[in-house]
Amino acid sequence: MYPRLQLNPGREKALLRGHPWLFSGALARREGKLKPGEVVLAVGRSGQPLALGFYHPETDIAFRVLTTKTDAVIDRDFFRRRIREAGALRKRLLPPETTTCRLINAEGDGLPGLIVDRYGDYLVLSLSTAGSELIRADLIEILLEELRPLGIYERSEGKSRLLEGLEERIGPVFGAPPPVVEISEGGLTFQVDLASGQKTGFFLDQRTNRELVRRFSSGALVLNCFSYTGAFSVYAGAGGATEVVSVETSASANRLAGINWQINGLPEDRHRIVAADVFDYLRQGEESFDLVILDPPAFAKSPKDLSRATRGYKEINRQGMRRLKGGGLLFTFSCSNFLAPDLFERIVLAAACEAGKRPLVLARLGPAADHPVLLGHPQGGYLKGLFLSLQAG
User: Fold this and answer.
1) To the nearest 5 percent, what fractions of the chain are helix, strand and coil?
2) Could you tell me the CA-to-CA distances from 355 to 20, 124, 279, 320, 363 in Å, in that order?
3) What is the three-class DSSP state of 225?
């Protein structure tokens, strides 16, 4: 029924271990001239069927698994079932006071190339592969039928889309979503910029880590670096921080950070917003803090960036540790896909050694549960973090 991709000998092992990708070097031959995004059947050297998935003839990731049930029919009902399954899982995971979540997490929900985030009554859609682009109209109709949102905004952009030969697409696709919407998370309220905010407007993946910050902020002087629209800051304030300092270069993000602090009824004199480059702020200041949060943007957006990114992560952690009081707490993160967790931990350890600190691991951190990752696909777990207590060396 579907065109076949035959693999080179031994290259089926990744699929059998649960990895959802095949790289171009794994392919021996293909049937016919296939267009980007077409559904094909991957078969082993002897012809045994392995998986159905999206094919792209010109990218390093040549095949993205949809299902290992090789007798399945990949049609509108197939995608409807996957979207229903993803929605049912979120209903089990989310507390009732939270009106926002990652509804569909690409490979983690068996829908490669598709991200859907829910912000109250609105959805933000992101398509990053040729396969998801081919079924775009069907996906939008299914989302409307199953979820009944008031509006859908599209944020299909970024390097992965360009690598697939697709132009960026940004704007409303259904209804008239306002550029800024209000959401509830963990009993707190936030305004989210759907139209021009980072990612789809809010760092949904950090929800459970924000809860941890709230738990340990009572009576603390808190520094939130790369604070964006102040979500970590609000959680710290709600947890009883004596003062929170938010450091961010973006004027629009700082404006929303101030609004988010205010609409949660937190004392204005307990929040300082500093418009500055975080590296400069940390190097030039001497004020010490009880708790520091380092949540920088991705320093490594491709493998060739790793060397520079390693230096950046080491410096930011060294300086952040320098600004901690004895026995202070550090929440440090990396969202770089290409930085493995073990390398991230080695970088943080090197920074601690240079700072003369003895780091105690209180927890290893990752994304919230509404960002599921296939166990056989560690690359899907881009967010990694450490919760540390820094003792004198």
Assistant:
1) 35, 30, 35
2) 41, 42, 15, 9, 21
3) strand
Give residue 96's identity as a one-letter amino acid code. Answer: P
Beta strands at 384-392 and 180-185: parallel, antiparallel or unpaired:
unpaired
Quick count: other Cβ atoms within 10 Å of Cβ 115?
23
| Catalytic-residue membership of 225 | no
What is the Cα 223 distance to its own chain's centre? 22
Over residues 221-238, the pLDDT tens digits come to 999 999 999 999 999 999
Residue 336 has pLDDT above 90, yes or no: no
Number of neighbours of residue 259 by Cβ within 10 angstroms: 17
Give the whole-angstrom CA distance, residue 156 versus residue 153.
10
CB 297 within 8 A of CB 268: no
Q: Which of 62-76, 182-196, 303-317, 376-390 has the lowest mean pLDDT?
A: 303-317
What integer pLDDT is reported at residue 138 of this predicted model? 97
The separation between CA 44 and the C-alpha centre of its own chain, rounded to angstroms, equals 33
The DSSP code sequence of 278-323 is HHHHHHH----EEEEEE-PPPS-SSGGGHHHHHHHHHHHHHHHHHT
Residue with tokens 């012809």: 47
Whole-angstrom distance, CA of residue 101 vs CA of residue 368: 9
Judged against a pLDDT cut of 80, whether residue 110 lies above it is answered with yes
Joined together, the tokens standing for residue 326 give 């004895």
Q: Which of 370, 92, 386, 330 is nearest to 205 (CA)?
A: 370
Choosing from 101, 225, 335, 353, the catalytic residue is 335
Q: How far apart are CA 372 and CA 303, in angstroms?
A: 24
Terminal CA-to-CA distance of the chain, rounded, Å?
Answer: 65
Cα separation, 306 vs 280, whole angstroms: 22
pLDDT over 90 (residue 31): no
pLDDT score at 290 = 98
The reported pTM is 0.94
